[in-house]
Every structure is written in structure tokens, then in C-alpha cells.
């Protein structure tokens, strides 16, 4: 009986040490989203409460941008994003700008001030979607193909309406559009 009572603390220590070793040594799941990876699924609501799921956009090139209204580089690139959306909105292309602001009023005011008339608006106030993409530098953009695979990942402000980026987007959209027949 005495031997058993002496072994209890040792047994307890061994169990706690084994559990601690398990958590310390196990390889954590990667939260990084790399080019070539499937884009993490998400669901988010627009200003009217309409839900959008990434999987609903299959067949389209998705321009997924994380931003917020007081981020200076975000402010500078949003008008360019509006131009990109205008150029491609009737094609196999979906613009998904996700603000991490806390309310739609700020985002609506921002859209009005910068005349962002064609882009949808989505809000991620708890950064749940941004965290799924491991976003840490704003703005941050993912270009996702029609099969849900990450094609490009950009951190920081970009001149999206420049020939370089427009050509990248155009090239990827063409891969998802039917080839026009030239035979008559």
C-alpha cells in the first residue's frame, strides 16, 4: 500500500511529462497558404447579409484582397482594383475585397469617397477569414484559379491596373473561358 502511494506522484509526473512532450514535439499544422495550395474555403457576408462561399466561385479567377479603410497602402491601391474589376467583371473573374474593419458604415463611406462603384464589399471584423489565409501585412492579395488553387500571392500595395498585373489576370481568365471558334 505504501509503495503504491509513493508511485502515484511519479506516475502523475510521467503522464504530465509525456503530454508536454507530445505538444512540444508534434509538428504544428502549417497556417501558411502558398502558391499551388488549395485556397482555404471560407464563407463571408456582404453589406446586404448575402453569404458568399469561395467554392461558389469555382470556374472563375478570384481576386481575393484583404484590406482596411485606414491602411494607407490599401487606400492607394483600391482605385486600381476598381479599374481591374471594371475591365474584367463581365468575364470569368470575381473581385472579393475583404475589409477587416469592424463595421460596414466605415467601408460604405470609403467606397463612396473613392468612387468604388463596381466592387462588392465584404466585412471580416473578427479576421476569421484573414487568419485562415495567415494575413499579416495589409493589403494582401491572392489570385485563385477556377479550380480553387492559389496562383499568386502578393503582399503590399500594387499598381493593379498596370500592364503587368492586367496581363497576369487576363492570361488566367482566358484559361477558364471557352475558346472562341474561328471556323465559319
Provide tags for this entry:
Glutaredoxin, 5-stranded mixed sheet, two-stranded antiparallel ribbon, 5 helices
Report on the architecture of this protein:
The protein is an alpha/beta fold and 184 residues long. The protein has a single domain (43-174), classed as Glutaredoxin (3-Layer(aba) Sandwich). It has helices at 2-25, 72-88, 104-113, 128-132, 163-174; strands spanning 43-45, 51-53, 61-67, 93-99, 122-123, 140-144, 150-155. The protein is elongated and about 85 Å long. The mean pLDDT is 88.
Basic shape = elongated
Mean pLDDT: 88
Number of domains: 1
Q: From the helix content, strand content and strand pairing, which structural class follows? A: alpha/beta
Q: Give the ordered list of helices and strands.
A: HEEEHEHEHEEH
Work out the number of β strands.
Answer: 7
- Order of strands in the sheet with most strands: 5-4-3-6-7
Distance between the termini: 96 Å
Amino acid at each position: 500500500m505504501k509503495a503504491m502511494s509513493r508511485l502515484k506522484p511519479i506516475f502523475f509526473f510521467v503522464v504530465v511529462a509525456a503530454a508536454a512532450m507530445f505538444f512540444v514535439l508534434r509538428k504544428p499544422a502549417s497556417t501558411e497558404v502558398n502558391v499551388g495550395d488549395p485556397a482555404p474555403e471560407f464563407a463571408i457576408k456582404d453589406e446586404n447579409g448575402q453569404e458568399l462561399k469561395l467554392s461558389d466561385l469555382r470556374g472563375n479567377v478570384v481576386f481575393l484582397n484583404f484590406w482596411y479603410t485606414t491602411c494607407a497602402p490599401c487606400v492607394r491601391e483600391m482605385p486600381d482594383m476598381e479599374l481591374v474589376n471594371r475591365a474584367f467583371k463581365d468575364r470569368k473573374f470575381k473581385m472579393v475585397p475583404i475589409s477587416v474593419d469592424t463595421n460596414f458604415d466605415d467601408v460604405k463611406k470609403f467606397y463612396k469617397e473613392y468612387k468604388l462603384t463596381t466592387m462588392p464589399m465584404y466585412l471580416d471584423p473578427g479576421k476569421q477569414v484573414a487568419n485562415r489565409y495567415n494575413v499579416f501585412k495589409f493589403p494582401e492579395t491572392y489570385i485563385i484559379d477556377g479550380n480553387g488553387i492559389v496562383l499568386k500571392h502578393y503582399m503590399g500595395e500594387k499598381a493593379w491596373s498596370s500592364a503587368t498585373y492586367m496581363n497576369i489576370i487576363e492570361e488566367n481568365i482566358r484559361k477558364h473561358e471557352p475558346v472562341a471558334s474561328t471556323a465559319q
